[in-house]
Design goal:
Oligomer: heterodimer
Helix content of chain B: 25-40%
Order of helices and strands of chain B: HHHHHHHEEEEEEEEH
Number of helices of chain A: 1
Largest sheet of chain A: 8 strands, mixed
Strand content of chain B: 15-25%
Largest interface: A-B, 29 and 34 residues
Strand content of chain A: over 45%
Strand order of the largest sheet of chain B: 1-2-3-8-7-6-5
């Protein structure tokens, strides 16, 4: 009985995902349909500065490929996090590359010594009317 | 008290050391009035002493050798024979002849160009010989392909400093290279390539590992199997309708993904490790 219920639920989910209004963008398509491989990390540059980096490879040549946003988060104890700054593709053009299957970029942030930092990076791919996004957190860095 | 008795004087002189007697004799002979009796007595004593001294041993070589040989026979040993220079020359000449046969006559009989090539041929038969200083030499990795797109990918990988075999040497003929792109920022360097035949697509990616960073490979919920080839473990997974293989070398993480049949993926993987002997 439980298995039957699960199967019905799966069918409903799949059916819902397949219902697409004409002309609308498919936001948040299954990410693996677009992305093949990625790397994300923080790279310490000096005692107070670090780069938030990403590299992404896609399944095919995308109209747009890169990161839709990078959020720099800070914590005093490594447990509770606060977003200190957000970089978006609209404001930072280096985050997106057009007509490509691979892209890499970074942003530089100046932090405060003694705090923990991490980056929340949302990878982004657009091809035709389809869009794929996947969120990753970098490892923690302490200044 | 003067010793007038000759015998007593003789006995007295016998108690005096020879050197002193000689000095007394010399002193007496320098006098104007020499005591002839004293001189005679001293000479008699010295002559007696000379006669009593042991006779010096004179060695006779032949007799000594005979005695020594007899002694050794008793021990069961033969005396060492003297080394002749000509026997050493004979041994060296024999060694040179053997070496000459090995290096020149035998290889020609086996239709080989040189001794070391003959060693290589024996490797394929029963057991393996190694050339001096060439122990266990493995065929060097040589990239060779007829596909211009794969050559372009290889050139990009080499430019990143990757020397390990990571690039396939074969893909089906009809696939053309759409894009080969190198990205390099901070500590991340990657080559990403897309090949297509207008129906299906092959994707290739190699990333140089920085030990602090991980690499994400996107897959679906189906399981992962392993494929061993050339000492490397390849992880095979699926991503929707694509077959993906990913593996790591000492410094790189590599991935190949295909839209087409799975057997094509395995042929592509095998072509990465083709050596001169294959």
């Amino acid at each position: 009985m439980k298995r039957f219920i699960k199967l019905i639920a799966l069918v409903l989910v799949i059916t819902t995902l397949l219902i697409v209004p004409a002309g609308a963008e498919n936001v948040n398509d299954k990410a693996s349909a677009y992305f093949m491989s990625s790397t994300i990390y923080l790279d310490k540059v000096s005692s107070t500065k670090f780069d938030a980096c990403f590299s992404v490879g896609a399944y095919g040549i995308m109209d747009e490929l890169g990161a839709s946003s990078i959020k720099i988060q800070r914590s005093a104890d490594g447990n509770s996090w606060t977003t200190m700054k957000t970089y978006t593709k609209e404001s930072y053009s280096q985050l997106i590359c057009e007509n490509t299957s691979s892209h890499a970029a970074y942003v530089t942030y100046t932090g405060t010594v003694g705090y923990y930092y991490r980056a929340k990076i949302t990878l982004y791919a657009k091809q035709g009317t389809g869009i794929g996004e996947v969120v990753h957190y970098t490892a923690t860095l302490r200044l | 008290m003067k010793l007038n008795n000759v015998a007593s004087r003789r006995e007295f002189l016998k108690t005096i050391p020879t050197q002193e007697l000689d000095e007394i004799l010399q002193a007496e002979l320098r006098k104007e009035n020499i005591d002839d009796d004293l001189v005679r007595l001293i000479l008699d004593v010295l002559e007696e002493r000379e006669a009593d001294r042991p006779v010096e041993i004179s060695v006779e070589v032949a007799t000594a050798v005979e005695k020594y040989t007899t002694y050794l026979d008793g021990l069961g040993k033969e005396p060492a024979k003297p080394t002749r220079r000509w026997s050493v020359v004979l041994k060296v000449a024999s060694a040179l002849v053997v070496v000459g046969l090995l290096f020149f006559v035998v290889p020609q009989a086996a239709n080989a160009e040189n001794f070391f090539e003959m060693l290589a041929r024996w490797t394929d038969s029963i057991f393996e010989f190694f050339s001096p200083g060439d122990d266990n030499k493995q065929p060097e990795y040589v990239f060779e392909t007829d596909h211009p797109g794969l050559q372009q990918i290889y050139d990009a990988v080499v430019e990143l400093g990757v020397t390990e075999p990571v690039v396939p040497m074969w893909v089906p003929e009809e696939y053309e290279l759409l894009e080969c792109k190198t990205t390099s920022i901070s500590r991340d360097k990657s080559v990403h390539a897309v090949l297509s035949n207008e129906r299906d697509t092959i994707f290739f990616r190699v990333s140089i590992i920085d030990t602090k960073n991980g690499v994400n490979i996107y897959k679906d919920e189906l399981g992962v199997i392993t494929y061993e080839h050339n000492g490397t473990t390849h992880y095979i997974m699926q991503n929707l309708n694509r077959q993906i293989a990913t593996w790591n070398t000492e410094k790189n993480i590599c991935s190949v993904a295909v839209d087409c049949q799975e057997d094509i993926l395995f042929e592509i993987l095998k072509s990465i490790y083709t050596t001169e002997e294959d």
